[in-house]
Specification:
Order of helices and strands: EEEHEHEHEHEHEHEHHHEHH
Radius of gyration: 18 Å
Helix content: 25-40%
Largest sheet: 8 strands, parallel
Strand order of the largest sheet: 3-4-5-6-7-8-9-10
Number of helices: 11
Structural class: alpha/beta
Number of strands: 10
Strand content: 5-15%
């Protein structure tokens, strides 16, 4: 698999990683046996970067990933912190960072965490000198090797990229979310900050597997968060109305390269965007993990295809998306 440098971490990672939210919760139940089999298939296919968080399954995802990583040296494991308390800027302080990190280090079984990301905190947190001072201290103490941020908006990303210690920015980027291409990716590239592209398949919508009759389990965020009832609506179907998304996918399907699935096409599109370090599709089973990783082997998409993707976005998606995404 093609390798790219993950921003200021200096680490090389395979361009297709694995998002481990599914292995914790919020996507219906996934057994530990299935979770480990999914991780194993991903790594066998060339994945070296795994992204988790302390709140996925209240630590379950970290624990599963940590046990797996201990048996498979050479992986880069990123986690996230900040969602275990009420989302107030005043909660983003050193004492809480230490407590959250200690719990993640225990869950993951690591003395030094590879990469810790602020987990979509309130906007003022991205501008706080004290927050970055605290994170720099944790790096100096070798509690964490590097830190980054996960963001909801482009403005948050640009604020973080301007900070010299920020190694990576995790942002929603897919064929339904093109705004990061305008300023965020060029700024990250210029600063040497890594871009971790999340929600690459728009919560599975860009897999082409869904239609008007598709239903989701009650404990799946695609059922309970469609209007942002539980967390930012952008995390579910990229904030796109389900019916509009289905129509866009119908138009995208014929553009996929011969022999590639719609999902692989969607992942290759992301990898073709200058500045992307790694894309982190989730997978609920080994077959999905293997198929996702195979997107890295596809040749770059022709310019004409990229133009058609943009045209579909401009006609169907742009009119309804949040102005700041």
């Amino acid at each position: 698999m093609e390798q790219r440098i993950l921003g200021r971490t200096g680490r090389e990672v395979g361009v297709v990683g694995l998002g481990a939210w599914q292995l914790g919760a919020d996507w219906g139940q996934v057994s530990e046996r299935d979770a480990v089999a999914t991780l194993a298939s991903a790594v066998e296919a060339g994945v070296t970067f795994i992204d988790t968080a302390d709140v996925y399954g209240d630590g379950r995802s970290e624990e599963i990933v940590g046990r797996f990583a201990a048996r498979n040296p050479g992986l880069t494991v990123a986690t996230k912190m900040g969602r275990r308390m009420e989302q107030l800027p005043e909660n983003y302080v050193m004492a809480n960072f230490r407590a959250w990190n200690e719990r993640s280090r225990t869950n993951l079984g690591m003395d030094t965490l590879d990469l810790v990301q602020l987990h979509c905190p309130p906007t003022p947190v991205y501008s706080s000198d004290a927050v970055y001072d605290a994170l720099d201290t944790l790096v100096a103490e070798q509690k964490i090797a590097a830190y980054g941020v996960s963001v909801e908006t482009c403005d948050q990303a640009l604020t973080a990229i301007a900070r010299p210690g920020v190694a990576t920015v995790q942002i929603i980027l897919n064929m339904f979310r093109l705004k990061p291409l305008e300023q965020v990716l060029p700024a990250a590239r210029a600063a040497g900050v890594g871009i971790i592209a999340r929600v690459p398949l728009a919560s599975g919508l860009l897999s082409g597997r869904y239609d008007e009759n598709t239903t989701f389990a009650a404990d799946d965020h695609r059922a309970y968060n469609r209007r942002g009832e539980a967390f930012d609506v952008g995390e579910t179907f990229s904030g796109v109305d389900f019916a509009t998304g289905l129509e866009a996918v119908r138009r995208l399907v014929p553009l996929a390269p011969e022999g590639a699935t719609t999902a692989q096409f969607a992942l290759r599109w992301i990898l073709d965007q200058p500045g992307v370090s790694v894309v982190i599709p989730g997978a609920r089973n080994p077959a999905q993990a293997t198929a996702n990783a195979a997107a890295a082997a596809l040749p770059p998409l022709p310019e004409a295809t990229l133009d058609k993707v943009r045209a579909i976005y401009d006609e169907l998606i742009r009119p309804q998306v949040h102005h700041n995404w």
